[in-house]
């Protein structure tokens, strides 16, 4: 019988425990698919004595010495589900340089310093797989890396954070404010006790960097991604979106473009935006994820499913484990990182966007002309204007044509200083042709 492929599992929390369970429950099928059984050589954890319920694993496999486990000669593949930057980066670089394939779900590390991992994999002749780092069980990264490798991807637009999608969906469905929807998400287990990484867009920004790197053959880090969260989205914003036939989603957007000299660039951003109800992403509710890919030859593609949770993420991890184990038995390696394009990342101010702006203004003659003058000074064209009463003042709702984001932001800044503008009540970007 073929010798088993032996795994070092780093981390045994929610995802790690489900990896162990799936390995146990599907052991025969996995062995048949690979051509050899999978065995756990050891599990690195912070505390050995922690109660892990009825986890089907020999307690003797647990260790607190992750680096020692990685260095063992009987370890073939390292599976990392600990998260964070350090010490995970050091562990994985050590494993890859030693020729041991790595499967990781660590989006933060990949987004901050994926280059170190890819370079170590190339040095050691090892595989680096990370399907579980973005959108859970949704098969997404491998299609970008392999299936669409012969095409030219032009744009990736996605809902990649289940917590924020649940919150915005609840606000849309019930008219609740952000704080109320966040409280509900926390009670139902969709939001962490500290939801900052989700609601401020850090989680989505890391995923956006990974998607952009694969889609555009360019190393993109989280620092390159313009990031805004959803904490400033109000019930009034949601109502205004409904009035326009739109809904609000936290989007990650990665797109090709050209700069003023005509050179090709990429722009990567995460922010809340209005999208029309006719857009495929508009119907993605609850804690689900979806990513909309546009390519020259393939056209429009959409990937949809559960983007988080122990079992979905473990499913993606096991899929990668099967791939690297089969490669190991066949004596081959997956294609190395493709970063040949090395496109410059265009700053957010140069990105072409559209704004939806709501203003409370003085109800007197000449106001509309004064407001329009501000847009003209910044060379921003107005697409639509809707005027209505707002107490003793009046409300102006303006949607712009596409313009550089810096010009739109400067327009809003000047509007805030006009004596005829009582307040700027809402500013949201508009995507998808609304």
Automatic annotation (TrEMBL):
UniProt-recorded Gene Ontology molecular function terms: homoserine dehydrogenase activity; metal ion binding; NADP binding
UniProt pathway: Amino-acid biosynthesis; L-threonine biosynthesis; L-threonine from L-aspartate: step 3/5; Amino-acid biosynthesis; L-methionine biosynthesis via de novo pathway; L-homoserine from L-aspartate: step 3/3
Residues reported in the UniProt entry to bind NADPH: 107
Database matches in SUPFAM superfamilies: ACT-like, Glyceraldehyde-3-phosphate dehydrogenase-like, C-terminal domain, NAD(P)-binding Rossmann-fold domains
Binding-site list for NADP(+): 10-17
Cofactor(s) required for function per UniProt: a metal cation
Residues annotated to bind L-homoserine: 192
InterPro entries linked to this entry: ACT-like_dom_sf, ACT_dom, Asp/hSer_DH_NAD-bd, HDH, HDH_cat, HDH_CS, NAD(P)-bd_dom_sf
Gene3D superfamilies linked: 3.30.70.260, Dihydrodipicolinate Reductase, domain 2, NAD(P)-binding Rossmann-like Domain
Domain ACT: 356-429
GO biological process, one term: threonine biosynthetic process
Active site: 207 (proton donor)
UniProt KW keywords: Amino-acid biosynthesis, Metal-binding, Methionine biosynthesis, NAD, NADP, Oxidoreductase, Sodium, Threonine biosynthesis
Enzyme class: oxidoreductase
Catalytic activity: L-homoserine + NADP(+) = L-aspartate 4-semialdehyde + NADPH + H(+); L-homoserine + NAD(+) = L-aspartate 4-semialdehyde + NADH + H(+)
Protein EC: 1.1.1.3
Role: Catalyzes the conversion of L-aspartate-beta-semialdehyde (L-Asa) to L-homoserine (L-Hse), the third step in the biosynthesis of threonine and methionine from aspartate.
Family classification: Belongs to the homoserine dehydrogenase family.
Protein name as catalogued: Homoserine dehydrogenase
Organism: Micromonospora tulbaghiae
Taxon lineage: Bacteria, Bacillati, Actinomycetota, Actinomycetes, Micromonosporales
